[in-house]
């Protein structure tokens, strides 16, 4: 029983401690950000082509939505699938 009470008291003290700090104290106790981030791996040719097709299809989707020319029931995933196939085929 004493262990449970002690555990609760410790938990309450740990949870409430940051609330009692001033903003300056809280900033000094915050963990430092790591500055040794790994460089990003360059995209492959296939990934670059896919992103370009996605941008083109996104532009077409926005234009069709704004003009009200999107078929009833057409959603972005369905439009993207059809547009991607068309662009891959070269049309």
Describe the secondary-structure layout.
Layout (H helix, E strand, L loop, with lengths): L1 H19 L2 H7 L15 H23 L8 H14 L2
Helix pairs in contact: 3-4
List unreliable stretches of 5+ residues.
Answer: none
Q: What is the helix fraction of residues, given as a range? A: 55-70%
Q: Rounded to an integer, what's the Rg over CA atoms?
A: 27 Å
Strand content: under 5%
Structural class: mainly alpha
Number of helices: 4
Kindly report how far apart the N and C termini lie.
75 Å
Major sheet characteristics: none
Q: Give the quaternary arrangement of the chains.
A: single chain
How many beta strands in the DSSP annotation? Answer: 0
- Calculate the mean pLDDT score and round it: 84
Instruction: List the domain count as a whole number.
Output: 1
The global form is: elongated
Note the run of SSEs as H and E. HHHH
Note down, in words, how this protein is organized.
The protein is elongated. The relative contact order is 0.07. It has one domain (2-28, 44-89). It has four helices and no strands. The chain is mainly α. The chain starts with a helix and ends with a helix.
Please summarize what this structure is.
By secondary structure, the protein is mainly α. The chain contains four helices and no strands.
Question: Main attributes?
Answer:
single chain; 91 residues; mainly alpha
